[in-house]
Amino acid sequence: MLQVEEIRTVAVIGAGMMGSGIAQTFAQAGYTVNLYARRDTTLQAAVRRITTSQESLTSAGLLGAAEAREARDRIRIFTDLPHAVCASQFVSESVPEDLKVKREVFAALDRHAPPGAVLSTDTSGLSVSAIAAATARPEAVVGCHWMNPAHLMPPVEVIRGQGTSDRTMELACGLLQRIGRIPIRVERDVPGFLWNRLQLALVREALHVVEQGIATPEAVDQAITAGLGLRWSA
């Protein structure tokens, strides 16, 4: 049975904004990262995005130049999915929020990822269980919802699908802790998970306040931007 200490290679599927941030985070934590996208132009853009992000961290004194360079050297790019995942112990999928697309990706991961590998999806609201149903190993599928920007935000929701095993939950949480993230366990696969439900609770109340004539939209906006938003960021 796979132990968190045995995870050496992470495959990141999707090289957009979230995928590049996730790849950067794992590489800076010392992991070999296989970054996959269908087009080489997407991968080259991801590499440039990671480099720019690291330059910002370096200029702020948060990342050494040598450390940044070594992390980039640990990122290998692929346009062939089987080759990207065949030797990975943990897979992080971050393709667009389209259930059909994600199920197609997970069906391919099921065929090509090694037995025992953890398959995670960075969905922000789609059903983890529905995505896992595209595989023959739903016990190994877990939601890992990263916050944007992934290379800076500490929390990652870890969502249990209907078939997700306790072992998979523990492995995902343990790995995230090892790379300096805070795993937020979500024990039921419900719409919106936890993060978005909390955000939308505030949105619903803002709409209610306006509908009831308690305050104007402008006043609500001021209360958030000059009040709650400023306080939270501080």
| Major beta-sheet overview | 8 strands, mixed
**Strand order in the sheet with the most strands:** 3-2-1-4-5-6-7-8
Compute the gyration radius: what is it? Answer: 19 Å
**Which segments are poorly predicted (pLDDT under 50) over 5 or more consecutive residues?**
none
What percentage of amino acids are in beta strands?
Answer: 15-25%
- Taken from the alpha-carbon principal axes, the silhouette is globular
How far apart are the first and last residues' alpha carbons, in Å?
Answer: 43 Å
The computed structural class is alpha/beta
- What's the SSE pattern? EHEHHEHEHEHEEHEHH
Number of β-strand runs:
8
- The average pLDDT value, as a whole number, equals 96
Q: Give me the number of helical elements.
A: 9
Q: Please give the share of residues in helix.
A: 40-55%
Which tags fit this structure?
alpha/beta; 234 residues; globular; 48% helix; 9 helices; eight-stranded mixed sheet
Would you write up a description of this structure?
The model has no long low-confidence stretch (mean pLDDT 96). Helix content is 48%, strand content 16%. β4 (90-93), α5 (99-112) and β5 form a beta-alpha-beta unit. It is α/β, with parallel strands linked by helices. The chain has helices at residues 17-28, 40-59, 65-73, 81-85, 99-112, 128-132, 166-178, 195-211, 217-233, and strands at 9-13, 32-36, 75-78, 90-93, 118-121, 141-146, 155-159, 182-186. The protein has 9 helices and 8 strands. α1 (17-28) crosses α2 (40-59).
